[in-house]
Amino acid sequence: MQEKIIILDFGSQTTQLIGRRVRELDVFCEILPYNKFPEGDESVKGVILSGSPFSVYDQNAFKMDLYKVRGKYPVLGICYGAQFIADSNGGTVEPAGSREYGRAHLGMFDKNNPLLQNVKENSQVWMSHGDTITSVPSYFKTIASTDEVAIAAYQVENEKIWGVQFHPEVYHTEDGTQILKNFVVNICGCTQDWSPASFIENTVAELKEQLGDDKVVLGLSGGVDSSVTAVLLNKAIGKNLTCIFVDHGLLRKNEFKNVMRDYECLGLNVIGVDASEKFFSELEGVTEPEKKRKIIGKGFIDVFDQEAHKLKDVKWLAQGTIYPDCIESLSITGTVIKSHHNVGGLPAKMNLSLCEPLRLLFKDEVRRVGTKLGMPEHLISRHPFPGPGLAVRILGDITPEKVQILQEADDIFIQGLRDWGLYDKVWQAGVILLPVQSVGVMGDERTYERAVALRAVTSTDAMTADWAHLPYEFLGKISNEIINKVKGVNRVTYDISSKPPATIEWE
Questions:
Q1: Is the backbone peptide bond immediately before 388 cis, with ω within 30 degrees of 0?
Q2: How many CA atoms lie within 13 A of 118 on its CB side?
Q3: How do beta strands 4-9 and 29-33 pair?
Q4: Residue 167: active-site member
Q5: How far apart (Å, rounded) are the C-alpha atoms in residues 413 and 492?
Q6: Torsion of CA 191, 195, 199, 205, to 10 degrees
Q7: What is the 3-state secondary structure (H, E, C) of 174-228?
Q8: Phi, psi of 482 (to 5 degrees)
Q9: Active site residue: 3, 29, 129, 167, which one?
Q10: Considering the chain, what is the average pLDDT of its residues?
């Protein structure tokens, strides 16, 4: 049984980062809503309570029954989690005089406390809260303070319950990884045996048990997520897997042909479907981004449904959904950032159960699993590409002409990144076709043609991203090549927005 840490999500923007830090310690963890603790799960070794956008005294604040975990597992509360534990035990949480955000230093801490062992003197931590714990019950022991926060960390005496008002999961907390290791490994007793190899072994065994002799249809996109899903399923159920790769007409240049060849080399049973006319027809005149995604998502399902009915006795639909897909589709606060065609709206008419073996993995973990499975490097290292394809990189309505322009410009940009040795230094890159035309001069003639934006970002998990600082010489060459070779484009810009506040894709 795979041991794990449960992270209860109270809505913090950094909850997923807690999960990543725990995974980096080679310990498996699961992030669940604050009110969905899996009682009776014998694999749970400890519990972490995340931060939250709420104050504990807000009427609508997320709250849980602490006695579901208290005395049964070690517990670590982070920021709101720490305040919630204190407030629930009769402590006082009040608005801070000013929002405490940014760097602080542990001026006093108990270096002998299990949570803070091997933490350096004056260690920097990162604060991000509008409330502060001003008092705790007598049986709470303060184990760390900063200049501004008297109760920066505490332990409930004679219990394995800790709280920290800072964020050990963020990069700026110098000894954050050590603190999490102290909790997860030393206090909870996790053995640090989670790895790509163990994930493959456990997942293949689970898939065999889950699927038995059932037949499965998998929607392939050409990206690393669905490709790794296919290889995992092929390892588990072999001939009972049928893959469907849909060309919705919105793929990159020559992608359908190239990806089909790759999948044949992997020994997968793949059916290629050219459905481009269907998608272009249904997208005609549509400009609203979310509506585009909905149409494409439904279109995928329709095609799968049609193809699945040609197969006999199919009972499962497999998808390459990964964790950020789920988070961005619906946050715990109910705010939709963007819908994802892998997550929502599986129609009842398909009468298929859903299988998502990568649902709890981050992108870099998927790549590590793919490497361990022996997949070709060019498949594993491919940049993420949106399920709706170039539809969300064309601002405005979709036409075959616009798609062709964007395919040519994108091909020049991506090939240029490869030629300059920049491709593997960038998390994701692509070209955006803008809904504007601009005046230009080509030869002696005035032009009035389209503008495009180059987009390249660096990231580790797509939850946050920074714009890639590409060389000016490279950007100049690519701009010149696109304008000279792609008919209909006379202006190239470069997007230097980070996520947040922007998203990686423009739509």
A1: no
A2: 10
A3: parallel
A4: yes
A5: 11
A6: -60
A7: CCHHHHHHHHHHHHCCCCCCCCHHHHHHHHHHHHHHHHCCCEEEEEECCCHHHHH
A8: -65, -45
A9: 167
A10: 89
Give the SS3 label for residue 324.
helix
CA distance 263 to 242: 12
pLDDT in tens, 361-376: 888 899 999 999 999 8
For residue 313, what pLDDT is reported? Answer: 87
pLDDT of residue 371: 94
Residues 6+ apart with CB under 8 A from 263: 220, 227, 230, 243, 245, 270
- How many C-beta atoms lie closer than 10 Å to residue 474's C-beta? 15
| 3-class DSSP assignment, residue 204 | helix
**Per-residue pLDDT tens for 194-223?**
888 889 998 999 999 999 999 999 988 888
List residues bridging with 441 in a β-sheet.
446
Q: What is the pTM of this model?
A: 0.73
Q: Is 252 helix (H, G, I), strand (E, B) or coil?
A: coil
Span 226-275, pLDDT tens digits: 999 999 999 999 999 999 998 999 999 999 998 888 888 888 999 999 99
Distance between CA atoms of 416 and 90, rounded to whole angstroms? 61
Q: Counting every residue, how long is the chain?
A: 507
Residues 333-362: pLDDT tens digits?
444 434 444 444 444 556 778 899 998 888
Separation CA 49–CA 29 (nearest Å): 13
**Given this model, what pLDDT does residue 350 score?**
62
Phi/psi at 278 (5° precision): -60, -45
Strands of 194-295, DSSP E: 215-220, 241-247, 270-274
Conformational region of residue 111, where left means phi above 0, alpha means psi within -120 to 50, and beta covers everything else:
alpha
Q: Are 165 and 151 in contact (CB under 8 A)?
A: yes
Which of the 8 DSSP states describes residue 116? Answer: G
Cross-strand partners of 271: 244
Residue owning tokens 């009468």? 351
Confidence of residue 443 (pLDDT cuts 50, 70, 90): low
Question: Of 79, 190, 243, 355, which residue is the catalytic one?
Answer: 79
Rounded CA-CA distance 115/236 in Å is 41
Active site residue 121: no
For the chain, how are helix, strand and coil distributed in percent, rounded to 5? 35, 25, 40
Quote the CA–CA distance of 349 and 309 in Å, as a whole number.
11
Structure tokens at 419: 């030629």
Half-sphere exposure at residue 1, Cβ-oriented, CA atoms within 13 angstroms: 8
C-alpha 342/C-alpha 325 separation (Å) is 8
Q: Which residues lie closer than 8 Å to 130 by C-beta, 6 or more apart?
A: 55, 95, 96, 99, 100
Query: Would you list the DSSP string of 348-408?
Result: GGG--EEE-TTTT--HHHHHHHHHHTT--HHHHTPPP--TTGGGGGB-S---HHHHHHHHH
Task: State both tokens at 52.
Answer: 């939250």
Among 3, 29, 129, 169, the one annotated catalytic: 169
Is the C-alpha dihedral spanning 184, 89, 125, 464 positive or negative? Answer: positive
